Amino acid sequence: xxxxxxxxxxxxxxxxxxxxxxxxxxxxxxxxxxxxxxxxxxxxxxxxxxxxxxxxxxxxxxxxxxxxxxxxxxxxxxxxxxxxxxxxxxxxxxxxxxxxxxxxxxxxxxxxxxxxxxxxxxxxxxxxxxxxxxxxxxxxxxxxxxxxxxxxxxxxxxxxxxxxxxxxxxxxxxxxxxxxxxxxxxxxxxxxxxxxxxxxxxxxxxxxxxxxxxxxxxxxxxxxxxxxxxxxxxxxxxxxxxxxxxxxxxxxxxxxxxxxxxxxxxxxxxxxxxxxxxxxxxxxxxxxxxxxxxxxxxx
Length: 299
Fold this sequence. Notes:
Helix content is about 5%, strand content about 40%. By secondary structure, the chain is mainly beta. The strands form 5 sheets. Strands 5, 7, 9, 12, 14, 15, 18 and 19 form an 8-stranded mixed beta sheet that branches. Strand 3 (about 60) and strand 4 form a beta hairpin. The chain starts with 12 loop residues before the first helix and ends with a strand.
């Protein structure tokens, strides 16, 4: 990790305060990296600011250099059981943390990948093997199964490791039919659903279904920040920086937004540290999600 800039490099008191604000946020985020993953290895911040295995954990070495330990863990699981009232659009949310950045997907109880006709599909790949990330994914259940219950499983995978969490969703016709499920959490309608819009069956509000909550990545690399969204019409994606300004190649050629919604940052720098907001918007509504980037110095 690069050292903070010298005070003489700041142009104003605002710059100094903004830097310290970012450092405090980053320090809080780094606490999450002390959690032990499924490999039994912990991730710590070394005295020189690099990420490596903690003392007492098993780490590997390649040509005399430490290799960042691999792990994957569901850090915020959806409820184990839930109830959906037929005809409502509901959501399940899952957060997975891993190193390298894990791939994340939802599957039905049968083991089949969730079908677009029923839910939004969220799958990302391990594009950056040096990264550590918290991935947030929402499963938007748009249609109620005819079965009495359906199991949905959130699965995170990285480097041959896997972590998962399942939710059994019971389907009932109305609140009056809760019966034996009165002690089971009732899934509330998606916040993008408005009763006034029910007359427009083909229109759906914008909803972000996948993004990074935090990303730790080596400086000098190319960063890809995903922002997947659903809605009818399909939402337009824009990215904002901490000052609320649109991020794009017009301001800095290192930044560009793809038509599919990803924000690309080429040659990651220390000065790029901070929060970036994805905004998904269509004619009905908009949704926002923040990603905090923390540049680190390679081992």
